[in-house]
């Protein structure tokens, strides 16, 4: 773990420092190793960027093939600019890889598959143990990349890494999870089941969890014997590339994990490629529903986690302070850019009078650059996202709601952040369920408040919403909590817990419009192992005595 030292200079006040500041070196970056590729990769476990200062030079993001980083031939309009959301300074450029480059990465994964499939599960487990240790060692380095490209606060970015690391830790239990079954089904006859890998599989990731979501796929797909091609979000690919570097160091052979880049063309390439047997997608409904239907139509397995609108219910008997702190944390943390953000609060009965306290507590959050000590939430991902969020806030005002706290127009005190994508916590009250701010997933630091007279009315309101990712109820009553648990349709339910994402011994169980195919294939846990493997059953007969058959029996065997 690095030592945090706060620089004293006014320019860098409050910024996290890896080592004691060195006057001979620019305070902007801490590059102690030779530059290899983009800013995230040009770092080590103990030396990485920790301020929002402009980079001395900007390099294109490489792709990863056969355990090597390579630069794409893409130029000009085929490069997507990635900016630090706190400053909008350029950080890297992500290529729309050429068709030949994409083809080569699939060929590499296909070539690696037979040997990897036949590598013993114990050897694969050892690699996973090393991978886990390396992620722990590089935890802050990964978090730094997330702050730089995605905009989260450093503490929140560490949480992003942790929730992925936990999936890798759980994947170390693969020998247990892959065990088949055996049953003696008749005299001298037994049936065994095996779980075998699928082949080359692909994962398409969103921008909001640059480490966690690649880690929903890398450990499980690889430990089960598949080879994997990942497409990180074109908006923040750095963490996925660091993970690839760590996987190589852990011992994954060439081609077992490749990383490709691009946008729609790359996604379509992966969808259409006949060597790819399964697609894991996490992102919004527009892309996800398209990917699910096209991938399924082309005969691939597809798991797809989609958008959300998560409700918290406040019952009058709840612990008020716990409720207020929980909702504020879950609504505004990560600037509201979590699929499990609590974006709607249902105030039941007298809790409607708590609105002013909710507003006052929200005003206390510090909105600032993610590298700044004490910052509670950072900027949103792009200027386009900021403009969309602001227009949804305006739509609420236009449609008759009340803007109880308006975070538009916010700027942190430091002029270095003047060009960032800032939206401060915003609370909208008097909202009706037909208003745009309620029907749209805002994906920003905006909390929408609706009212209900009873728990049953609150449950009915939530169940009418087409999304079903998560929900939470705040109460001291076991009976009320149990009624909520039984009647609510959302797939991940918190009882006095604001973000009830289960740890990886369970699975991520969103439902309704928040997941494709009613959640038939969920991420991680035992269902994750099932997704990345196919079953084979073998029925064997070992006669204990010689039999002289009089005639072949052509009726359907009953094995009895
Ligand atoms: P997005 O759908 O815009 O992008 C996700 C991925 O799909 C990216 O890699 C992108 O390049 C690709 N993509 C985007 N549009 C595409 C198209 N039309 N055709 C083909 N590919 C396309 O999502 P995002 O903005 O990166 O992430 C935010 C969304 O993800 C939110 O809706 C959020 O709720 C959702 N999300 C869901 C979960 C979950 O588990 N349910 C988790 C995280 C994020």
Automatic annotation (TrEMBL):
Domain of life: Eukaryota
Keywords carried by this UniProt record: NAD, Oxidoreductase
EC number: 1.2.1.27
CDD domains, A to Z: ALDH_F6_MMSDH
A Pfam family: Aldedh
Protein name in UniProt: methylmalonate-semialdehyde dehydrogenase (CoA acylating)
GO biological process entries: L-valine catabolic process; thymine catabolic process
InterPro entries: Ald_DH/histidinol_DH, Ald_DH_C, Ald_DH_CS_CYS, Ald_DH_N, Aldehyde_DH_dom, MeMal-semiAld_DH
Segments of this protein annotated with the region Disordered: 1-34
Domain Aldehyde dehydrogenase stretches: 78-538
GO molecular function: methylmalonate-semialdehyde dehydrogenase (acylating, NAD) activity
Matching NCBIfam families: MMSDH
Similarity field: Belongs to the aldehyde dehydrogenase family.
A GO CC annotation given for this chain: mitochondrion
Matches recorded under PANTHER family: MALONATE-SEMIALDEHYDE DEHYDROGENASE, METHYLMALONATE-SEMIALDEHYDE DEHYDROGENASE [ACYLATING], MITOCHONDRIAL
């Amino acid at each position: 773990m690095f030592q945090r030292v706060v620089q004293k200079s006014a320019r860098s006040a409050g910024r996290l420092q890896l080592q004691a500041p060195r006057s001979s070196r620019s305070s902007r970056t801490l590059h102690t190793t030779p530059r290899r590729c983009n800013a995230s990769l040009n770092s080590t476990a103990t030396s990485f960027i920790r301020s929002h200062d402009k980079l001395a030079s900007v390099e294109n993001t490489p792709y990863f093939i056969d355990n090597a980083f390579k630069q794409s031939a893409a130029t000009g309009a085929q490069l997507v600019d990635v900016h630090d959301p706190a400053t909008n300074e350029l950080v890297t450029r992500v290529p729309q890889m050429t068709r030949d480059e994409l083809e080569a990465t699939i060929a590499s994964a296909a070539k690696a598959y037979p040997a990897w499939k036949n590598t013993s599960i114990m050897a694969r487990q050892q690699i996973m143990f090393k991978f886990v240790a390396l992620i722990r060692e590089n935890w802050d380095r990964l978090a730094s990349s997330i702050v730089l490209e995605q905009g989260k606060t450093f503490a929140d970015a560490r949480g992003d890494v942790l929730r992925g690391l936990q999936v890798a830790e759980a994947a170390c239990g693969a020998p247990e999870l892959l065990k088949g079954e055996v049953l003696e089904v008749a005299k001298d006859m037994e049936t065994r089941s095996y779980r075998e890998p699928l082949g080359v599989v692909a994962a398409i990731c969103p921008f909001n969890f640059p480490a966690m979501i690649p880690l929903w796929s890398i450990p499980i797909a690889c430990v089960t014997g598949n080879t994997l091609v990942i497409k990180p979000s074109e908006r923040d690919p750095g963490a996925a590339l660091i993970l690839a570097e760590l996987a190589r160091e852990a011992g994954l052979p060439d081609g077992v994990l490749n990383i490709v880049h691009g946008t729609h063309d790359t996604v379509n390439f992966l969808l259409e490629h006949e060597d790819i047997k399964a697609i894991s997608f996490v992102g919004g409904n527009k892309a996800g529903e398209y990917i699910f239907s096209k991938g399924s139509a082309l005969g691939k397995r597809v798991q797809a986690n989609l958008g959300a609108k998560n409700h918290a219910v406040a019952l009058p008997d709840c612990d008020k302070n716990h409720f207020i702190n929980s909702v504020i944390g879950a609504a505004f943390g990560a600037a509201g850019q979590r699929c499990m953000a609590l974006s709607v609060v249902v105030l039941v009965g007298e809790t409607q009078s708590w609105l002013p306290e909710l507003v006052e507590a929200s005003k206390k959050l510090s909105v600032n650059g993610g590298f700044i000590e004490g910052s509670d939430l950072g900027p949103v991902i792009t200027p386009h996202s900021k403009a969309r969020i602001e227009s949804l806030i305006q739509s609420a005002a236009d449609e008759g709601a009340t803007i109880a706290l308006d975070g538009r127009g916010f700027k942190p005190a430091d002029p270095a952040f003047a060009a960032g994508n800032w939206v401060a916590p915003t609370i909208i009250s008097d909202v009706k369920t037909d208003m745009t701010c309620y029907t749209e997933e805002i994906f920003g630091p905006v909390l929408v408040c609706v009212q209900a007279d009873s728990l049953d009315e609150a449950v009915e309101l939530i169940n009418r919403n087409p999304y079903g990712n998560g929900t939470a109820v705040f109460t001291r009553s076991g009976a009320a909590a149990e009624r909520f648990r039984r009647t609510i349709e959302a797939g991940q339910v918190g009882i006095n817990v604001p973000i009830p994402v289960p740890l990886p011994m369970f699975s991520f169980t969103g439902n309704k419009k928040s997941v494709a195919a009613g959640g038939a294939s969920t991420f991680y846990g035992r269902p994750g192992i099932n997704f990345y493997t196919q079953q084979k059953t073998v029925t064997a007969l070992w006669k204990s005595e010689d039999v002289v058959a009089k005639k072949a029996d052509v009726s359907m065997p009953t094995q009895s």
